Amino acid sequence: MKIYKEQISKLVSSVLHSVTQEEIMALLEYPAKPEMGDVSLPCFRLSKLLRKLPQQIADELRMSLHEEAIERMESVGVSGAIHHKPVSCRLGAGL
Question: Domain 2-93, CATH 3.30.1360.70 — does that match?
């Protein structure tokens, strides 16, 4: 799963230029329920830094990241969490 976090943090930091890949990596979590995805990014933690609402950040990421390595990405709730469901074969193929 660490490889998913690395791949997703790289993608997210390419969209959010003021946040480093390492900072994103530290924020990524594993959701409590498997149906929520494999990796989650709680955008409320980025809200103060980016001076945007968490839902705005989540929606911006969801619309900006059109990556073949991500099977499903959705923004949920008022906290603006992003849940990722990576496609493991695509992420593993380039390694």
Answer: yes
Residue appearing with tokens 């950040």: 57
Q: What is the pTM of this model?
A: 0.70
Q: Which tokens hold the place of 86?
A: 């990576």
| Helix (H) or strand (E) segment spanning residue 71 | strand 70-76
Q: What is the pLDDT of residue 91?
A: 31
Domain spans, the chain: 2-93
86, containing H or E segment: strand 81-86
| Dihedrals phi, psi of 30, to nearest 5 degrees | -100, 120
- The residues, ordered by sequence, that sit 6+ positions from 90 with a Cβ below 8 Å of its Cβ are 68, 69
